[in-house]
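To: structure subgroup
Subject: Chain for Friday's discussion

All,

I'm putting the inputs and outputs inline so they're searchable in the archive.
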Amino acid sequence: MEFPKFKYHPDPISTGAIKESNETCECCGEARGYIYASNLYAEEEIEFICPWCIADGSAAKKFDGMFSDDYPLQEAGVSKEVISEICERTPGYNSWQQEVWQAHCGTP
């Protein structure tokens, strides 16, 4: 199975957002060799999510969560479609404080 591609986070393994793991994804129930290494902002605490469930949006939908805060993107005038892609279908990144996606002229 080909590793998912993320337009706004093109190499999540090198950034540490995705790591190799034999854990089972709490969304799809499969162990695919990789797991998300950051937070899904949701009501319940989710520990293991595979990149495929991030990429297709099923994790965000199933757990009613987001991988990044949408507020800075809204304030920057980014379209709802792009905000949805970043917050619901793109791995967030690890940061000392809360991550903030930068945007310029409405483009993240």
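Points worth raising on Friday:
Strands lie at 18-20, 34-36.
Residues 18-89 form one domain.

D.
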